């Protein structure tokens, strides 16, 4: 398409595939909103006037601003390139952060003060700090992305998708398999098998309708399946009302009273957000849509800042899943319409009713589908010889996921790993100390390990040494292989990475002509700069 044609090209706001993406992405957002609503009301025992009157309207506003902005960014990209297949980046509440801010920040403050407003204010201040890190880091992210191999970026993203995105939905599906597996098959057939349902109804909507019918059919027969009850509907209707976002600037700065508690997690999770956004931009580019990294990261920071100043204690994040929504036909409109719909739901208190009407297990297969797609993308979009590096990038996330399960189980029993005794756990095969170290800062750990592996495979030992040195510094200050930021947080891993850097540096100095090309070596992919050295030596 020539320059004149591109200038005259007007992208369509809505395409037929946007219906699929709307119901898929919309239900993804809905699941997260329903979960956080339940946690606020039942885990933190926050009053409904705070949850439905202040927090949810502000959350809806943040999500609306975010999704509309990314729809505009997609429109701009489509117009610049003259393409009609550009898909907007998905975005929403950072899922990992949702649990961190509730259980690590708000719950301890609630236990200490007995004041739900103090807990809320601490959450607002936590998001404020993270927003600043994102806005400043947006100008560093493009550099990191430029020097990091795609296998490392997508590999650590696949680790998040396989563990924290896919596993819980899969387990809950098998907890109610009649609904879960039936809905999952509908999703697979529609989005992987290209099956068209009657009237062109989106597969996501069909799955939710069928799952809801099964759940209510079981309830009509007096079976407790899917958690549906008429009493829950009556209680949900009582939550109806209308609330608008109200500025909470004073509440946000009141939360800085707990600054010491906030910094322990706000700084490392701010770095986490930075890397995750960078990974997801890389994922979108691999799927054909190239977005400016700094705009994406800074936008997350700005939108999150606006959200917290209006009363929302949850961070905004670009979501994993762009290739999935694009594959099912999503383009520009699905993002903006989702955000506007969510704002309406949050302001009118409809979420409680939806939670009572729709079984969550009917929605979860959509999340499993996204996890499958992102995990597959890491292998599909990276050179085949980098597959071992992708597997290595997955490992820290597996450790973090296993540690989360162990901590949850022991916590429910009123104890902890250290109270039980690490040696006692080791005797039954639970190497808790290793899980704790390997899984700390998993997204950075996976990125660094994956990058080192890629450069070793390519025999680019100078870059392998550089990433080993980065691993040393990040471990020393607790950004990876640690649970908090500080001085000499993880000295053991830091020294180990320093030794790796020295070893890789020695290999770089002595050259690698004596090292034979591995059996089955494919050679560098066309245009793959990381393979230049290996190609020269193979000759």
Give your account of this protein's structure.
- The chain is mainly α.
- The chain has 2 domains: 3-7 and 17-379, no CATH class; 383-517 and 524-538, no CATH class.
- It has 25 helices and 2 strands.
- It has a two-stranded antiparallel ribbon.
- The protein is globular and about 70 Å long.
- 53% of the residues are buried.
- Mean pLDDT is 84; it is low at 513-521 and 523-539.
Descriptive keywords:
mainly alpha, 2 strands, 539 residues, two-stranded antiparallel sheet, disordered C terminus, 2 domains
Spatial sequence of strands, sheet with the most strands:
1-2
Number of extended strands: 2
- Give the termini distance in whole angstroms: 40 Å
Largest sheet: 2 strands, antiparallel
* Alpha plus pi helix count: 25
Approximate strand percentage: under 5%
Which structural class fits the helix and strand makeup?
mainly alpha
Which stretches are low in confidence, meaning pLDDT under 50 for 5 or more residues running?
513-521, 523-539
Number of domain units: 2
- Mean of all residue-level pLDDT scores: 84
Rg from alpha-carbon coordinates: 24 Å
The H-and-E topology, N to C, reads as HHHEHHHHHHHHHHEHHHHHHHHHHHH
Question: Which of globular, elongated, flat, extended, rod-shaped describes the shape?
Answer: globular
Q: Helix share of residues?
A: over 70%
């Amino acid at each position: 398409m020539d320059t004149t044609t591109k200038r005259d090209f007007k992208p369509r706001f809505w395409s037929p595939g946007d219906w699929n993406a709307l119901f898929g992405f919309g239900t993804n957002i809905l699941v997260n909103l329903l979960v956080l609503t339940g946690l606020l009301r039942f885990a933190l025992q926050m009053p409904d006037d705070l949850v439905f009157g202040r927090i949810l309207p502000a959350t809806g506003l943040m999500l609306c601003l975010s999704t509309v902005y990314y729809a505009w960014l997609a429109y701009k990209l489509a117009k610049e390139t003259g393409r009609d297949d550009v898909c907007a980046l998905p975005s929403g509440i950072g899922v990992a952060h949702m649990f961190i801010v509730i259980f690590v920040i708000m719950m301890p403050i609630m236990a200490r003060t007995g004041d739900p407003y103090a807990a809320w204010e601490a959450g607002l201040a936590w998001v404020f700090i993270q927003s600043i890190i994102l806005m400043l880091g947006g100008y560093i992210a493009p550099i990191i992305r430029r020097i990091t191999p795609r296998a490392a970026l997508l590999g650590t993203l696949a680790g998040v998708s396989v563990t924290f995105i896919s596993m819980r939905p899969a387990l809950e599906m098998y907890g109610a398999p009649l609904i879960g597996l039936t809905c999952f098959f509908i999703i697979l057939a529609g989005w992987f098998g290209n099956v068209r349902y009657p009237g062109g109804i989106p597969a996501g909507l069909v799955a939710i309708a069928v799952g809801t019918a099964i759940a209510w059919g079981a309830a009509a027969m007096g079976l407790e399946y899917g958690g549906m009850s008429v009493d829950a509907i009556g209680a949900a209707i009582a939550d109806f009302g209308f609330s608008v976002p109200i500025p909470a600037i004073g509440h946000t700065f009141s939360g800085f009273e707990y600054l010491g508690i906030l910094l322990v997690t706000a700084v490392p999770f701010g770095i986490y957000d930075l890397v995750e956004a960078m990974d997801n931009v890389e994922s979108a580019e691999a799927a054909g849509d190239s977005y400016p990294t700094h705009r994406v990261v800074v936008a997350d920071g700005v939108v999150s800042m606006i959200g917290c100043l209006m009363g929302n204690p949850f961070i905004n994040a670009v979501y994993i899943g762009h290739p999935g929504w694009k594959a099912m036909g999503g383009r520009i409109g699905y993002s903006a319409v989702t955000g506007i719909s969510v704002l309406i739901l949050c302001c009118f208190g409809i979420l409680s009713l939806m939670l009572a009407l729709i079984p969550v297990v009917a929605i979860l297969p959509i999340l499993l589908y996204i996890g499958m797609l992102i995990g597959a993308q890491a292998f599909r979009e990276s050179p085949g010889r980098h597959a071992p590096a992708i597997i290595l990038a997955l490992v820290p996330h597996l450790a973090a996921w296993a540690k989360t399960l162990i901590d949850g189980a022991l916590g429910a029993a009123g104890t902890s790993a250290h109270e039980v005794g690490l040696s006692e756990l080791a005797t039954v095969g639970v190497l808790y100390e290793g899980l704790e170290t390997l899984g700390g800062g998993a997204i950075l750990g996976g990125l660094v390990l994956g990058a080192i592996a890629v450069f070793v495979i390519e025999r680019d030992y100078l870059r392998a040494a550089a990433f080993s040195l980065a691993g040393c510094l990040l471990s020393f200050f607790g950004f990876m292989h640690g649970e908090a930021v500080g001085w000499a947080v993880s000295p053991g891993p830091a020294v180990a990475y320093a030794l790796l850097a020295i070893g890789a540096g020695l290999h770089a100095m002595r050259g690698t002509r004596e090292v034979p090309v591995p059996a089955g070596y494919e050679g560098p992919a066309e245009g793959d700069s990381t393979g230049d050295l290996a190609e020269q030596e193979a000759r």
